[in-house]
Amino acid sequence: MSFRHRISLLQMLCEESNMEMKEKIAALENYIMQRCLWQFHSRAWDRETQNTGILGITRQLLCGEEVDLSTPAQKCFWVDAACLADGFRSKFPWINEMSLPEINEMMDGLKARIDYVTIHGSLNEELSVKLY
Q: Predicted confidence band at 123 (pLDDT cuts at 50, 70, 90)?
């Protein structure tokens, strides 16, 4: 097998892997959009805080990490994250087969996608009103 052929084969495998990851992220995004009300805060900074807190703790739970619950905000995020992690595990059993690096990659992609959909790509002009 030639070097070019091997490189081409590797690129194809990476693209397939990326497509599979994008499909997984899309499934999780759809789950959140259909079932989670926390995404609808009226200000962009609230949405950013919620997305970071809930998805960050969801990542920790999926990875089996210890969660810091020392503040009321962390406790609030944990409640939503625990429900989300349980829902992800039951609805998408493939999560249970993923390695920790794969879960981290998936959650990074999900966070970026949720931020885009709910904040940066949103057409809701109220998100940036300074009077709130």
A: low
Phi, psi for 98 (deg, rounded to 5): -80, 150
Helix, strand, coil % over all residues of the chain, rounded to 5: 80, 0, 20
Domain ranges within the chain, ordered by starting residue: 63-122
With left for phi above 0 and alpha for psi between -120 and 50, is residue 128 left, alpha or beta?
A: alpha
Is it the case that residue 21 has pLDDT exceeding 60?
yes
Q: Helix or strand or coil: residue 68?
A: coil
In a 13 Å sphere around the CA of 120, the CA atoms on its Cβ side amount to 8
Q: CA–CA separation, 114 vs 130, rounded Å? A: 22
What does residue 114 show for φ and ψ, rounded to 5 degrees? -65, -40
Q: Which pTM was predicted?
A: 0.81
- Taking phi first (over 0 means left), then psi (-120 to 50 degrees means alpha), and beta for anything else, what does residue 64 get? left
Q: Under a CB-based contact definition with an 8 Å cutoff, are residues 78 and 67 in contact?
A: yes
CA–CA dist 110, 19 (Å, integer): 14
